[in-house]
Amino acid sequence: MILYIDTSSSYLYAAIVSDNEVKEEIKQEYGHQLSKVALPEIVTMFESSNITPQDITKIIVVNGPGSFTGIRIGITIAKVYAWSLKVPITTVTSLEAMAASSEKDLVRVPIIDARRGFCYAAIFDENDKAVLEPTYITYEKLEEKLKNISRYKIISNDQEKLPIKAEVIESYDPNFIEIVKEFKNKNKINPHAVNPNYLKLTEAEESRL
To answer: Among 206, 65, 60, which residue's Cα sits nearest to residue 134?
Structure first.
């Protein structure tokens, strides 16, 4: 059984997946309460599914980009579980999870708005090849990279903020089965080596520099 955790936004996305079946899941927005409720909600998820943490054989955690505080919450919970249960842990980016949740019928462009004309984005073709690795980029530069792609779709929950248009724009709804299927065999990491992948400096770091 695989435990998936994503707290990189104002939502808690968590699931227990086994044999291509979601045993229990959480898709809930908590906003500023996320740091308080994330762990209790995951504990409740185990209890309501009659599955114990000891049944987990691997953990997949989203390590960014997204909310700096949110990312740290999910990583901390995942590391504690992995270390205490002595199970493998691996990371995926929120952009990879977004792309994996969408059908591979077109080039997929997951986007998270980062304000001030910037975004977090990636480009994946129909064969899952990364045309653009997850990165912090201006919308202007992203549009340049999309000019040579005839048809693509945008995956985002920040649609009203996006200056980029596309034939197809999808809201992000995690497909836990597809995410786990795609990343369950990804190399494991020492729990102590799992760190946030912000893709940019924090505002405090930027100000200091």
So the answer is: 65
